[in-house]
Amino acid sequence: MGNTVLQPDTEFIKDLMAAGAEDVKKCYQCATCSVACELGDGAFPRRQMVAAQWGQKEKLLADPAPWLCFYCGECSKRCPRQANPGETMMALRRYATAQYDWTGLARRMYGSAVWEIGVLLLVAAMVIALFTVPQNFGFGLLRQHPEALQTVRLDLFAPKHVVHRADWIMAIGLALLLLSNALRMFRALTRGKHVPLGVWLACLPGMVADGLTQRRWAKCGESRMHWLRHLVLVTGYGTIFTLVVIFLPWFQVEDTGFHWTSLLGYYSTVVLLGSTGWILLDRMGKRSEMHRFSELSDWLFPVLLFLTALSGIALHIVRLANEPMATYTIYTVHLAIAAPMLIVEVPFGKWAHLLYRPLALYIAAAVNRSEAMDGYKE
Amino acid sequence: MSKLGVYICSGCGIGEALDMAQVSKVGGESKAAVCRTHAALCSAEGVAGIRADLDSGAVDRVVVAACSPRFKTEAFCFNHGTIVERVNLREHVAWCHKPGDEDTQMLAEDYLRMGIARALKTEAVQPLSNEISDTILVVGGGIAGTTAAVEAANAGYPVLLVEKEEELGGRAAASRKLTVSMEELAETALYHPRIRTYCSTEIRKIEGQPGMFDVTLGTVSGEQQVRAGAIVVATGWKPYDAAKLAHLGYGASPDVITNEQFERMAAKGPILRPSNGQPVKSVVFVQCAGSRDPEHLPYCSTVCCLQTLRQIGYLREQDQEAQVYVIYKDMRTPAQDERIYRQAQDHPMNFFTKGEVAAVKRWEDGRVAVTADHTLLGESITVLADLVVLAAGMVPNGTENILHLTYRQGPELPVLRDGFPDSHFVCFPYETRRTGIYAAGTVRSPMGEDQGRRDAMGAAMKAIQCVELASKGRAVHPRGGDMSFPSFFLQRCTQCKRCTEECPFGALDEDVKGTPKPNPYRCRRCGVCMGACPERIVSFANYSVDMIASMIKAIEVPEEDEEKPRVLALVCENDAYPALDLAGLKRQPYDANVRVIPLRCLGSLNIVWIADALSRGIDGVMLIGCKYGEDYQCHFTKGSELAAKRLENLKETLQRLQLEPERLQLTELAIDEWDKLPALFDGFVERMRELGPNPYKGF
Lengths: 378, 699
Known about the structure:
The complex is a heterodimer. Chain A is an all-alpha fold. Helices cover 69% and strands 0% of the residues of chain A. Chain A is built from 19 helices and no strands. The radius of gyration of chain A is 23 Å and the shape is elongated. Chain A starts with 9 loop residues before the first helix and ends with a helix. Chain B is an alpha/beta fold. Chain B has 5 domains: 1-124, 3-Layer(aba) Sandwich (Rossmann fold); 136-236 and 397-471, FAD/NAD(P)-binding domain (3-Layer(bba) Sandwich); 239-394, FAD/NAD(P)-binding domain, CATH 3.50.50.60; 487-539, Alpha-Beta Plaits, CATH 3.30.70.20; 543-699, Rossmann fold (3-Layer(aba) Sandwich), CATH 3.40.50. Chain B has a 5-stranded parallel β-sheet, covered by helices on one side. Chain B has a 5-stranded parallel β-sheet with strand order 13-20-14-15-16. Chain B has a 4-stranded parallel β-sheet with strand order 2-1-3-4, with helices on both faces. The longest helix of chain B has 23 residues, at 449-471. The radius of gyration of chain B is 31 Å and the shape is elongated. The two termini of chain B are 31 Å apart. At the A-B interface, helix 1 and helix 3 of A face helix 10, strand 16, strand 18 and strand 19 of B.
């Protein structure tokens, strides 16, 4: 308010500009973007643009609005000043992802390519080391079992119970990290706001629906293609995640016979390769507004997902072809891609949006509903 | 005894609409020496016929009854001094009235009678001839003044350039950066063979008139007399009085300054806090400080947005991290200035918002707190700054204590509503209400240096035009070329001073008793003095009270029982008359009972004409002139307004004579409102019918 002195956070402005909002200062507040936006409240994203220009860090970190945007790019297309509000909202999400992470790792990785690639390589190296250094696991164990060099024996190379347990440890660890970060987001977005428990509960189904279907995205922009493609990608990703984390004993099999899990695996493979490949071509060709600007984080996520799926299906093929050494090597490579991808992207990287976005929508909906109720009471 | 030739054209549809033999008879009934009809009078053959009569001496003045005088002007221009009267049978009769109709025929015959009456009352103009100085005096040696001086000198005219400061430069000299090199400009002027520059010099007195202004220049050491033919006033601007900006914090702290003070500081050296000389780490620029504010300056001062952007640039040269806030009403950066706006916006430490400054106060730590409401951030904000710069508006500096004219109407240029001495910023740029004195640059409108230079060229051309026309005894705009001028039959003057007060251009001085002292070169020939004079002692050789009265008398007023009302329309020849031509061109029919007489300006309306018309049984009189008031369009600034005043006085008299005041009506009409004319005429004639015939008919 008028009595408190406004002090722009100049570091924030520079960080945000470095995170992709390099054109934010060009905005002269004509509000064409707000008119173009199908999802905003009438002032979005104009108000966020001026807040960003003026270094209003606290205000923006407490604002769920950037997460309401699915980047159809209509605003940027129509902006008379080339201020790229769409990309600015993307940069705000990148910045927020970095800020909500309490470990500080996300901040380092968003700020520096060396850090991001370094961490990925480090985790990959740890996975490779896990299969090569110990004597009773991976390649070490194979030395004691020459028969495993004649026929594929994944149960000897990477025993299911060990991998399954590792899957669970990783899944729980990542979930805890992500949840703790999400809790920080929740605190930031609800500070000073009073939402009754009943409202929180009432809005919960909406959050689940948003998370599963991204239904608001369907209303966004001229084409529903991006939404549909993303939805299919989510099903593919969800299928393979469920297979690996919950149904690994039925998924990682030794024989060459038919398994029901194979069908699901093929589905995931096709979907993941197809959609991430398509996304990568879009980004390379800057084919649509949302793909015109690509930060490192925007490249790594689809690249890693594509490579994971590719190595997964390659693993399947060499196993069926009974090529033991190729199978073990590709298995190691597959995990050396998948594990770093999950560890880096889920709690610290772009993938975190799978929780942040529905959560922000949930909070926004709950706050709106309780404010409307307050207004009704008054 | 004058030998009149009447020539009637039957081309362009006139012959089809009228009984030409009857029209011709009107010419014959007059004392015309020659009366002829021709199928295309403007053709070479038609013109040659007239010329032959003139050359043989058969006729010495000519009535051409054909198209509007606004057309074929060159064709019907004969030897110098030949009186030519045009009767508009085409646009005003044939093209807008029922062909072959009795009323149309009566209208044409009346117009011809009126034209003949006018021609017979016209006298040959004796042109003025005096020794005219072609020297241009330029007052003010800033960008505009120096440019005007150089331009006029380059065109071959001697120039006197007067500057009150020690050096040329004006406000430009106090600016850090300009798109114009003032040094180069000053050097060009100083070494120009046709420019004499007087620095540290003021004008003590200006006497005389265009072509012969006697100017007294004064310096600390003495005075000297110079003569000039025309004057360009380029005395520039001054910042809006900052003392009136207390609501924006001026005076609250020494660190609240105006843009002009900032510019001076930046021109001299680094930008520092005035309070303690420390570097400036944060600045708030408050735009429109006074401008676009109905309580201060209602207009946009044009340059403040650009100046602020430039000043941000100066600060950036010394500090990239300083925080710069701009609180604006609208950023206005036309043309290429937009690039500078973009550039300023791009800097991460520059913060722009629309907003209204609500409070500017000293903060505890000595900085200045600026609070703005209604910002784009969606809330009121307060920012702290080491320096607050108020982008104060421009006010003209040319209307007080500058020219010292010895004119009866005052020593300085009269101003319009916003204090500018222009006479109409759209229609008549550079023209002031003092003939021969032209305003250039920021004295007449806020503008930047580039526009100021172009403006100076325009004003210099106007000044050159003035001395050239004066040397031929011709009037300047808007009656450019007119050689007539008013003469005063002073034996009958009652010293009522109406003419000297009402002259829109201050052309008339007075002696101690109040008798007018004409200065014909100051005159723009509008005839306002002629309309003002109750004794009717003012007249032009080709425009007089008697002449218009004779035209009114020439109108045949039918007897009461004929049910043909007669309406006289006295219309301004600048807007209403051409509008009526347009109505004819567009074939817009209107009542044929109206008789139109053009006046030089409605301000030349002498109320005796109305008395004449009504006493002759004319049922109603319409006056159609330009718009007046704040957004006036009158070419002589207030002619129609004066006519309206005279009409109000007359309406009272009318009531004493038992005549309805509705018989008089004044309408303001712009040239583009031609389409309203038919309804206007028809409506008025209809009301006259309802009122019944003028009871004085037949007396």
